[in-house]
Amino acid sequence: MQSNKRIAILSGGGDCPGTNAAIRAITKKAILEDGIEVIGITDGFDGLLHNRFRTLHYDDVSGIMTQGGTILGTSNIANPYKLSVKQGDKMEFEDASPTVIANIRKMNIDCLVCIGGDGTLDIANRFFHDGIPLVGVPKTIDNDLPGTDITFGFDTAVTIATEGIDRLHSTAQSHHRVMIVEVMGRNAGWIALYSGVAGGADIILVPEIPYDLDVIVERVKERNRKGKRFSIIVVAEGAKPKGGSVIVQRVVKEASDPVRLGGVGIILGSQIEDITGIETRTVVMGHLQRGGTPTPFDRILATRLGTKTVEMIENKSFGCMAAAKGSSIIAVPLAEVAGGLRVVQSDDPLVQSARSISTCFGD
Ligand code: F6P
Fold it and tell me: Is the minimum distance from the CB of 76 to ligand 1 under 6 angstroms?
């Protein structure tokens, strides 16, 4: 069956396990059920800016379910509304959206599918308001998007981080050390909370609950007094002390959202070691959390979101994002997602549950 419809797919922002499963689901359903021609944009919005794309055939997406990353490539610096251009030694930003809009129009597509997290979906929402028919697919390991209960990539990241914590337990126990595991999460501590609880961490530090070093130190000492001569601390990269600020690892000048966090675990480690005299080591999980094959949960979620996306295209539910709500997948307006963040609330049931079994949140 061949319709005269064409759609294009792009993936933007940090890579995330499950993205290929979503690309596969969208492409297969579009081709098989509706005879839609599918175009894959290379490297997110950068590909739209420079007209880099290719047709995705059924065979191109067959067998990619288990692959990490994205077969389309991605970029977390290409924001067409705030594009970096080098002027001599200086970096300036310009609005390249008119070029991108003209390029999209030339592609003659019925819909643009944007798979991404907060940054990508904010940009998508702006293009929708500038007249581009599009739909969004939520994707981030951080699980911090409003409008959806969960995003694919999160379960995989939690699984990898938990495995890391499990493996560090033996070193902590054998050497009577404090082991700190730094995980991703700039504004939202979901990965730290879930992997910390799953890994049986003694202390979990999230951006939403600023910590008090004295409380952490006291917990470590108390464990030692009780004969537990090791402690496991899981800290989100965006965690900060009360009245203090986050630790910036690098500034990516070309990015419209330039700050990259990292390093809080190392600083905390030397502070705890200095005060307690207990050897303290830090492991930064970093990009390991985003790599490799997605968990079955993420593959299923990405497949369901992908097939819903094609349904939304058929129904012309443009300006919306496929979202997980309870056991359903529904369409939610991008306007409800753009610019927002879903963070851990201090009364989150999992925070309460962890506190009730004496997990310390550093407050
Ligand atoms: O948004 C996902 C995320 O993994 C964040 O948790 C992290 O701060 C950021 O991306 C790092 O991205 P990169 O190092 O690839 O620029």
Answer: yes
